[in-house]
């Protein structure tokens, strides 16, 4: 029912236009919106349960306390932007413009925030080297508002990183429920009934609550800009890896982030820990000299459009365009406009883009606006070995899931190598014990034969091994 409601709200019907109903559209809403959203809620609920078991306390969400972790601050800021957008569109009776920003936000929540903070939410160490506002440590910030004053004071206190992440996710899920209650009444009611015990709410139904207003304490356009840039870099890196058939489990030596704009590079440095972790690279190099990597700028005017508008001035403008320097074209890429004589030309009139005149040895490249990313595509034997170790870790994690084990279950693991002429499997396991210890709970050993009292056993062909778990 919720999928159908959201499908119709996003359809031409609300614009008084004809609709050719498609069942695939309703399924698409379930797949792209409701399922990921509900999965984020289920993940939160499961991690709260583990948090309470491990810490011996009841989790209680506190709106006055939030983390200085940059990704926490970002998702809270993005939530306020969504609230403002939905309120504006509803006020203007443009319900059909609610779903697109909602789909984008669900993607931000599940594929970026939850994915990047999965370890924190599970109570595992945060990604190393990630800067937060005010330093490199995760601290709580309490907003104490004086009722006799309009000012807000911020008090720092130490707290648990996992609590901060869970607290942030709880606030975001609750805000999302309030925003969407009128559009998806059933799923929001279900989630509200499970979330309200963490929020000290006494209302019998979410439909007794009002749509929230944006909280100015959480607004932060700087962090939103930085994360948007980080996402561009990571997506370019993923594309290059996919193009060159390099799995994300295989580390790469370096990436080079190139931009004429030093402010962009400074923004990205605040999130380099996430970039390094997500792209699995050892080093990030920043450069404001694209020419060092054979990157040039090319401009192609649309003379068909310009001719219709400029008429007899076209030749004058054409001659002037040929005199434009690379520095001016760089400004055009940022400002999307340029003044030629008495005519203002925009990116609708001229297509300006960067390209690589010749390949930079050992690297592949992708462009996105004023950013270029070069990724080292050379994989060394040691990197192959680490990638193989991560592949085996992934197989063990899947085996744990098949055995219905939970995060806190500690089991012993055994590997039987079925075929390994080059001894690469044994080398990968023995050389990367620290990776296995960090990712898996329990002891790992290589054996000649697996005993029959195993909890679960599975054979694989690539790599050619047999894995088993024991209680």
From TrEMBL:
GO BP field: isoleucyl-tRNA aminoacylation
Pfam families: Anticodon_1 (PF08264), DUF5915 (PF19302)
Keyword field: Aminoacyl-tRNA synthetase, ATP-binding, Ligase, Nucleotide-binding, Protein biosynthesis
Upper taxonomic lineage: Eukaryota, Fungi, Fungi incertae sedis, Cryptomycota, Cryptomycota incertae sedis
Entry protein name: Anticodon-binding domain of a subclass of class I aminoacyl-tRNA synthetase
Organism: Rozella allomycis (strain CSF55)
Coiled-coil zones: none
The Methionyl/Valyl/Leucyl/Isoleucyl-tRNA synthetase anticodon-binding domain, residue ranges: 72-124, 156-253
GO MF assignments: ATP binding; isoleucine-tRNA ligase activity; tRNA binding
